[in-house]
Write a sequence for this structure.
């Protein structure tokens, strides 16, 4: 039996989403004929050609003049320039023509549409070069990649405004799937006349089937925005290749479809599996081979003969983490991914700039207490490790296959004990890689351990400071304090490791005073050289988190959800403090943007919110709090 795993649009364009690489590697380790393709990348690249842009041009001309956006009008006015530059720009972003950077940096080579207006907001250079502050005199390649990314973003806006209003890099059709209580919006969209985007995706899907002739197709949906396209792929397969079975899984499915009861989704797929896919897939393959009854499927939804959703969960242990095999990128076009430079946030650059081999150091989270996290779900709650020797074996195998030595460890929180053993094994075996990952800023990460990790190839670490408030950190059960975070992050920074802080605002019962104080802590962390990067995320309550499961413990009341037959995750709540967190968010993001560029430290924390028209209290944090934490 042959299995084809597909990455549906839209996921990352700089590196393959790793789920199919994990599953393909696992299935091959069990003797299964398994292959994979990235239709997300293929779809984008199919439009970013002279022929593809000609098709977009035809669609744009069909838009009534009064309905055309600024992006569409600019594209039509400068179509010849776009058509002549698209191939060299794609080659440049794929790393196949680095010398083009010189022409791009002249600012006379690319048509500069509405997205380029953002550069003018930061034109602080005396000579009028608005990128000098970001890249300096030696950053010509980075500068060109940023300009080329803005150019692609302009084209993405045209695709959205003229071809398919669901299109957006990464989050394609997100609104159709995220926390939708009913399948109806997706069902209606899938019945509608296909757009040019849909037709192109259908053609790419058919080509993939013809190349591989699979018996089973796996659709991995990591985000809500990939669900619509995944079902469009399934729709084409069902129509043209009805004998092929289709299974759906992935992060979005595992999180949001756990209470599925709407059978209409089975017009498109045959099976929907939950949580880690290895055991359900083995059971499914045995079933399709006639060696296992339907009743013995594991964590799998099916449609019954009377058109009802059934959940089958024969009790079998999961495949141990040490036995899942080594991920493989065989079959994915590693030389065709686009190294984009969209956000100038240093850590966010790692997400979109360069191709990283994604690897998991341990399954689940060793802490699994944070109240905002989905700790009740398998991907957090089931914690398993592998030996350092086996992890380095996997690393060596991946480097040999891909020829690339950059690794992103995608753990929710990589355990310090495992990272220490891994670093020592990398050094002992003289395996030279560059790697980054996500951790908890706990005291186990001493300056000595930070130095060891740096020696083994660690270039960056991200971790959750969340709300920089000891009261709220305690309420979150984060297990760290602001003082501890300062000491740990300074150790990493002193070791030459870039540190990014995940920050949060709008947590239940968070006051305006705590928001201002949190920003002051963050200001001092930047100024003291503890962190170099950060981003404020708006808190969202989910049904699988401790806050969603026990809202009374956090002083809030959940807004009742409508009857759910499809997706369920985000849940609104009533916070008695009544703080307008959305309004405060603008000041937080503005402040941190300045801090990342080494400016604005002299501005008082409360002054970042001056334009809100509301009374903002002064910070209560001592000016030297972080300094004292570091040197007491």
């Amino acid at each position: 039996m042959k299995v084809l795993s597909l990455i549906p649009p839209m996921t990352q364009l700089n590196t393959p989403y790793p789920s199919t690489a994990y599953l393909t590697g696992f299935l091959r380790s069990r003797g299964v004929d398994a292959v994979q393709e990235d239709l997300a990348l293929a779809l984008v690249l199919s439009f970013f050609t002279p022929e593809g842009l000609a098709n977009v041009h035809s669609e744009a001309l069909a838009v009534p003049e009064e309905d055309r956006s600024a992006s569409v009008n600019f594209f039509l006015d400068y179509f010849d320039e776009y058509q002549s530059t698209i191939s060299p720009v794609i080659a440049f972003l794929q790393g196949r023509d680095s010398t083009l950077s010189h022409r791009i940096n002249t600012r006379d080579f690319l048509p500069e549409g509405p997205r380029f207006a953002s550069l003018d907001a930061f034109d602080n250079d005396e000579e009028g070069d608005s990128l000098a502050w970001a890249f300096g005199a030696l950053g010509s390649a980075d500068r060109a990649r940023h300009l080329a990314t803005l150019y692609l973003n302009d084209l993405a806006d045209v695709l959205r405004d003229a071809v398919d209003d669901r299109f957006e890099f990464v989050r394609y059709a997100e609104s159709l799937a995220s926390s939708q209580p009913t399948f109806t919006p997706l069902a209606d969209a899938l019945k509608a006349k296909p757009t040019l985007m849909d037709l192109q995706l259908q053609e790419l899907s058919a080509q993939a089937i013809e190349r591989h002739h699979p018996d089973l197709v796996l659709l991995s949906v990591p985000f809500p925005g990939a669900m619509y396209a995944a079902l469009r792929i399934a729709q084409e397969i069902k129509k043209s290749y009805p004998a092929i079975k289709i299974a759906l899984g992935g992060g979005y499915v595992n999180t949001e479809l756990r209470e599925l009861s709407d059978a209409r989704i089975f017009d498109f797929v045959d099976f929907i599996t939950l949580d880690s896919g290895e055991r359900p897939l083995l059971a499914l393959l045995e079933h399709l081979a006639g060696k296992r009854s339907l009743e013995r499927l594991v964590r799998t939804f099916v449609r019954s003969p009377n058109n009802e959703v059934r959940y089958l969960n024969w009790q079998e242990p999961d495949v141990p983490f040490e036995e899942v095999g080594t991920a493989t990128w065989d079959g994915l076009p590693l030389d065709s991914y686009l190294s984009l430079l969209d956000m100038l946030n240093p850590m966010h650059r790692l997400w979109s700039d360069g191709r990283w081999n994604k690897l998991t150091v341990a399954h689940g989270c060793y802490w699994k207490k944070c109240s905002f996290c989905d700790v009740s779900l398998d991907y957090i709650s089931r914690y398993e490790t592998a030996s350092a020797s086996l992890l380095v074996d996997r690393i060596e195998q991946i480097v040999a296959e891909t020829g690339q030595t950059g690794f992103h460890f995608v753990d929710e929180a990589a355990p310090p004990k495992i990272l220490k053993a891994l670093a020592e094994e990398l050094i002992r075996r003289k395996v030279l890689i560059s790697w980054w990952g996500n951790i908890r800023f706990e005291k186990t990460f001493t300056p000595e351990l930070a130095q060891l990790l740096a020696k083994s190839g660690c270039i960056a670490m991200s971790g959750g400071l969340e709300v920089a408030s000891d009261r709220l950190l305690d309420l979150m059960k984060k297990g760290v304090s602001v003082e501890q975070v300062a000491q740990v992050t300074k150790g990493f920074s002193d070791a030459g490791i870039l540190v990014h802080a995940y920050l949060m605002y709008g947590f239940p019962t968070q006051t305006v005073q705590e928001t201002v104080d949190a920003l002051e802590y963050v200001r001092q962390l930047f100024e003291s050289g503890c962190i170099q990067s950060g981003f404020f995320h708006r808190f969202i309550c989910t049904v699988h988190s401790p806050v969603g499961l026990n809202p009374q413990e956090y002083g809030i009341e959940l807004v009742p959800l409508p009857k759910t037959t499809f997706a369920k995750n985000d849940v609104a709540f009533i916070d008695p403090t009544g703080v307008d967190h959305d309004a405060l968010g603008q000041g937080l993001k503005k402040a941190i943007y300045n801090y990342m560029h080494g400016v604005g430290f002299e501005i008082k924390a409360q002054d970042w919110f001056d334009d809100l028209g509301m009374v903002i209290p002064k910070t209560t944090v001592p000016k030297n709090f972080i300094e004292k934490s570091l040197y007491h």
